[in-house]
Structure formats: C-alpha cells, structure tokens
Amino acid sequence: MPRTARPTESRFGKMLRTRREELGFTKAELAKKLTLSASFIDVLETGRRGCNLDELPRIAAVLKLDAGAVAKVYLAERHAEFYRSLFPGAPDAVVPR
How far is Cα of residue 48 from the mean position of the Cα atoms in its chain? Predict the structure, then answer.
C-alpha cells in the first residue's frame, strides 16, 4: 500500500508547501533548486523534521520570500524559547506572503 503524507500542523511546513505550489514547483523541482532531496522537502512540509538554520536564507530565496520572515516562522515553531528571547513580547511570527 503506498504511503501518503499526513496533513501537517506545522506553520513552517504549510508555508513551504503553499508557496511551492503557488510557484508551480513539484517537490522534486524545489529539491533540485535547493540541492536537497525530495524526501527531505516532504519531511519539512509535513513538519516531521526541521532544517539547518543556514538553509533558511536559501529556502527563502528560491521561494521568493523574505528571509527574515521565514526565519521568524521557523524559530517561533521549532525554537520557541530562543524566538521569545530574541523577540520578547512579540506575537507569534506571521507567515510571509
């Protein structure tokens, strides 16, 4: 039986998937542009894993999103305590458009 991805609760993952689809990229095409594997794109989009912080600017550039906003969404979700220390009193990060 083929495995299907479960819907994600990851705001970062939803942001990646939504923007990838808006730009008309398949997972394989995005992976090639980022020199990552399609399976790694899948785990990012489903929120099963995070990425290296150094990859965020490349991801943002390929998806034509603001790198700072992408980093805030990622940090708020994956490193909440660190996010709060960087942005005390800030609301949850807003997904960039």
Answer: 11
pTM exceeds 0.90: no
Give CA 50 to chain center in angstroms. Answer: 8
* Phi, psi angles (nearest 5°) of residue 4: -120, 145
The set of residues, in sequence order, having a beta carbon less than 8 Å from that of 16 and lying 6+ positions away, is 41, 44, 45, 59, 63
Contact 46/10 with Cβ under 8 angstroms?
Answer: yes
Q: Which amino acid is at 85?
A: S
- Residues 10-66: tens digit of each pLDDT: 999 999 999 999 999 999 999 999 999 999 999 999 999 999 999 999 999 999 999
Q: Residue 80, Cα to own-chain centre: how many angstroms?
A: 15
